[in-house]
C-alpha cells in the first residue's frame, strides 16, 4: 500500500486529489507526495493571519498540544511512531523516544519561556516595551518564515518551528525527503487541538525537490521574510542565489 502525504496550507489540509504526485521510496516502501501547483502558491501568497496572542497564550496552546502527544493512545502519536518504524527504519523504542521528545518539549512551559528569554533577553519583550539602558525595546516578528528541514535530526525541525511560533512568525515548512513525517504530524496535532487557532492557521507544510523545476519553489521563497535552513553550504549558497533580499539562518 502506498502512503499518501497531505499538503497543509494555512492550517488546512489541501485537497490534492487532482494533483500530480512525486514518488519517494523510503526503506523499500513507497510514498506519494503532492506536487505544488500555481494555485497552491497563490493561496499561500493570499494568507493573512492576524496573531494578537501574548506569550502566555502561545505557550498554553503548545502545552495543550503536548498533552495530546504525551498520551500513548493519541492516534497522531501512534501513526507517527508506525511511520518512523516502517519508512525510516527506526526501532520501536527509538520511534517512541522521538514522540516522547516532542511531548516533552511542548509540555515544558519553563523551557519554552527560557527559549524566548535566552534568545531575546526577556520573556516579555515580544509583548511589551522593555527598558534597556536609555531606551525601550520590543521584539517584532519578521513575518513569514520558511523552514527548510533536515531529515537526519527530526527534533531540529521541531525546535525551528517552535522558535518561529514563540516569536509570532508564520511558517512555511519544507519537509525533507528523508523525513516527511515529523513536521506533518506536528502541524496535524495543532489542527486536532484547534483548527481555527491563529497558530494553526499560520502553519503550512509541503515538499519540493531541488532537482526539479524551481519556478514554483522560487515563488514560495519570494514570500519569505526570513529563511531557516538546515543543511550544508551547497544548499545555503543555492538559497542565497535564489533570493538576495531574505535573511538566511
UniProtKB/TrEMBL annotation:
One of its GO terms (biological process) is bioluminescence. Keywords: NADP. Transmembrane segments: none annotated. GO terms for molecular function: acyl-CoA dehydrogenase activity. It comes from the Bacteria. InterPro entries: Ald_DH/histidinol_DH, CoA_reduct_LuxC. The keyword NADP applies. This is Acyl-CoA reductase. It comes from Photobacterium leiognathi lrivu.4.1. The lineage of its organism: Bacteria, Pseudomonadati, Pseudomonadota, Gammaproteobacteria, Vibrionales.
